[in-house]
């Protein structure tokens, strides 16, 4: 302080020039900060209010430095909440610097103690600003986590509403086109950031949900950020293989690919059903496609697996040729013996061999392999059960219509 001026006198002088300081600060902001000039009037007024609060708060702090914990509420408390979303932390620090420079220039020559107080206060206000933004980021992170969990729950349950697309957009979903759902065991400590970084490196976007001991990841392909699109064409199985390290020990089941995120419920249901029965197949690898577990899922009562087996195996063979369906049934019933099947059908073994080749061409499964033979046997049993039921319903419907 200047010689002969007490602290009370200095405070009184500061209060007399507070209006002048506010005016000079706003003028400096307009001159030095382009982003401030480009703001709409309402936002500029709010930013100016923050600067004025900073000057007023400095005077209160200079009178009693023990008020440091209240700096954040004094300076930023009066600003509208949306200001934090429109003004970045970097811009806030620029605002603080301009304000401090204006005050320093105005009080120049009024004592080193006052200048040191300004420098100390500017440090405190910078930390206070960082704390405000950190709290806002933490709150945003918690909200995003809750919103993400809500979206994943909607996908798993299939209970969609009109707000789902807006929730997905709010999460910044970058996925384009096809989507699949992966289910595995949750690790003891999930590193969400590492999981997301790995996905970004693979040009994929993900949604993460933890349900008890299960980790559910919804994967969508994202457009590459550069010209190197080497990973952008990776299959979902390859992407899951790269993400496997972030799951816990145990089976990792990949649901079938679907067209979009809003269609992901079918992929999620298949992946969940496959995860619950993956231990029933001793030869199951990890990761494994949910459709590789169709017989286990069907035996466990999964209606989607039953319908898939019938639609992919029984119906195509039934529509293609009754001979193919009969030959496959006989071949499986006779322990996959060509000779026994030939005797049963009164044909040459080469005819059986030819028909089995046609079966593979029609449905894509090879009945000569043990695992695929079991899948085909399950599909034929399910189709044989459903076909008489459909026929009985058709007859009943015809009889009712005739009456």
Radius of gyration: 35 Å
- How much strand content do the residues show? 5-15%
Mean pLDDT: 81
Helical content band: 55-70%
The number of E-state strands comes to 5
Structural class: alpha+beta
If helices are DSSP runs of H or I spanning 4 or more residues, what is the number of helices? 18
Assign an overall shape: rod-shaped
* Main sheet summary: 5 strands, mixed
Strand order of the largest sheet: 2-3-1-4-5
Number of domains: 3
N-to-C terminal Cα separation, in Å?
108 Å
Please characterize this protein's 3D structure.
The chain is α+β, with helices and mostly antiparallel strands. The protein has 3 domains: 7-139; 180-291; 303-402, Orthogonal Bundle (Arc Repressor Mutant, subunit A). The protein is 64% helix and 8% strand. The protein has 18 helices and 5 strands. It has a 5-stranded mixed beta sheet with strand order 2-3-1-4-5, sandwiched between helices. It is rod-shaped and about 120 Å long.
Topology summary:
Layout: H1 7-16, H2 18-32, H3 34-37, H4 41-63, H5 71-76, H6 82-86, H7 89-107, H8 112-157, H9 164-170, E1 175-185, H10 192-201, E2 204-211, E3 214-222, H11 236-243, E4 253-254, H12 264-277, E5 288-289, H13 294-299, H14 303-320, H15 322-333, H16 338-345, H17 349-363, H18 370-402
Parallel strand pairs: 4-5
Antiparallel strand pairs: 1-3, 1-4, 2-3
Helix pairs in contact: 1-4, 2-4, 2-7, 4-7, 4-8, 7-8, 8-9, 8-12, 14-18, 15-16, 15-17, 16-17
